[in-house]
Design brief:
The chain is α/β, with parallel strands linked by helices and 278 residues long. It is 52% helix and 13% strand. Helix 7 crosses helix 12 and helix 8 crosses helix 9.
């Protein structure tokens, strides 16, 4: 990424921190080219001390106006109030990247100077270790070069998929919220291993490597997930017994329902912001 780019995070929550960590550790940008603001003084201090970047508890015109990329990383319900505060510092020569779940680019554009290019993105917190799954889409005024710049930014922290904007809510439900589903599975596997008699450290090590190995198999194999599952499911064997327990508890349906509910919640956030509710 060009050394001319200055990135400003409006909001310094978990997703912003994951991106800041990823940008620094993957050497996409030096810390001198990253600034973050947050209304919580303690959070500003924490991020500044942890990553050595500049932070502000109140965005200043000087730093925000100089930014080439402005990343919206606050809560979706705060869209109107936040941009009402910062709009005077923004201009159409900047690229605005929104991480706001459920917020359409057209709606975001209403709170920005006219013609401001907006790219909507949905990464996940694995950005902090360079393994994010991110989807992006272009707003009305975003040109191919804006989309390419956003793709370069996120590609340094994992994989990037361009999708049509109506699909962004589904992305949120699948990969945006997805790490939490995997962590819940890991919790259950760890607890199950300990219930079966393993000590905690052994159960955790085996759980971590099992998940890592299975994910890698999905990446490198030509087989579908169903085919890979069948390969380790010998008739009358131990895996079949375990899978039967998951089937009895409607595991597949539960995961699918989790994705659909998270997708619908993403749509709800946009409707709530539109009508001024939380």
């Amino acid at each position: 990424m060009s050394s001319d780019n200055l990135v400003y995070f409006l909001g310094a929550g978990a997703m912003a921190e994951a991106m800041i960590k990823g940008l620094l550790e993957q050497q996409v940008l030096p810390r001198e080219q990253i600034t973050a603001t947050d209304i919580r003084p303690g959070r500003c201090l924490e991020i500044a001390e942890k990553y050595g970047i500049a932070t502000e508890c109140q965005a200043t015109a000087e730093r925000l106006a100089q930014a080439t990329i402005v990343i919206l990383a606050f809560k979706p319900k705060d869209l109107a109030s936040a941009l009402a505060t910062y709009r005077a510092y923004l201009h159409e020569d900047q690229l605005v990247i929104s991480l706001l779940a459920g917020m359409p680019t057209q709606q975001i554009g209403q709170y920005l100077p006219e013609q401001t290019p907006v790219v909507r993105a949905m990464p996940n917190t694995a950005a902090s270790v360079g393994l994010a799954a991110t989807a992006i889409c272009a707003g009305q005024h975003a040109k191919p070069e804006h989309l390419a710049l956003a793709e370069t930014l996120f590609a340094a922290m994992g994989i990037v998929q361009q999708v049509a904007e109506p699909m962004m809510d589904a992305v949120t439900g699948l990969s945006g919220s997805g790490p939490a589903y995997v962590y819940l599975l890991a919790e259950a596997m760890l607890a199950g291993g300990m219930a079966a008699g393993l000590d905690g450290s052994t159960a955790r090590a085996l759980t971590e490597q099992t998940l890592l190995g299975a994910a890698r198999m999905l990446q490198v194999s030509d087989h579908t997930p169903a085919e890979l599952r069948q390969q380790v499911s010998s008739p009358g064997g131990t895996t079949i017994a375990g899978l039967q327990a998951l089937t009895e508890h409607h595991f597949t349906e539960a995961v699918q329902d989790a994705i659909l509910r998270a997708t619908e919640r993403s749509r709800d956030l946009a409707r709530a912001a539109t009508f001024g509710t939380n």
